Amino acid sequence: MVVDELAPDEVDRLFHALADRTRRDIVVRVIERESSVSELARGYDMSFAAVQKHVAVLERAGLVTKVRRGREALVRPDIETIARGARLLRGYEDLWRGRVARMDALLEPPRTEPID
């Protein structure tokens, strides 16, 4: 099962990183276009250091990577980790849908056959 694809600590880091609105927005922005931390910081009403900390959380979760280009650190998405997270959530969805289907089957009224 996909849920077992990630170690429990990896899942914790992934959900912790995505629990914050700014971090989710950073992931979306770097998927659209890799950006320097400076460019990212200009898009938020917070300090450069605060954005840098958000990026560090995303890096620890494996959702983004930083690559040095000259004096800038470019932030790029790690598409494989994002895909693994999506598969994890689909796995949870499949578990839930299976559970709902079993409850529906239990609650369905019994079929009665017509008597000839």
Fill in the keyword field for this structure.
elongated, single chain, three-stranded antiparallel β-sheet, 116 residues, 5 helices, 12% strand, alpha+beta, Arc Repressor Mutant, subunit A
How does this structure look, described?
With 116 residues, the chain is α+β, with helices and mostly antiparallel strands. It has a single domain, classed as Orthogonal Bundle (Arc Repressor Mutant, subunit A). It contains 5 helices and 3 strands. A hairpin with a 2-residue loop joins strand 2 (64-69) and strand 3 (72-77).
Please provide a brief summary of the model.
One of its GO terms (molecular function) is DNA-binding transcription factor activity. With 116 residues, this protein is α+β, with helices and mostly antiparallel strands. 61% of the residues lie in helices and 12% in strands.
Indicate the CATH class. Answer: Mainly Alpha
Q: What is the rounded Rg? A: 21 Å
Task: Give the strand content.
Answer: 5-15%
Q: Would you tell me which CATH topology applies?
A: Arc Repressor Mutant, subunit A
Protein structure class: alpha+beta
The rough form would be described as: elongated
The number of distinct helices, counting runs of at least 4 residues, comes to 5
Question: Any idea what the CATH superfamily is called?
Answer: Winged helix-like DNA-binding domain superfamily/Winged helix DNA-binding domain
**Physical arrangement of strands within the biggest beta sheet:** 1-3-2
Taking the sheet with the most strands, its summary is:
3 strands, antiparallel
Poorly predicted sequence stretches spanning 5 or more consecutive residues: none
Counting structural domains, the number is: 1
| CATH architecture level-2 label | Orthogonal Bundle
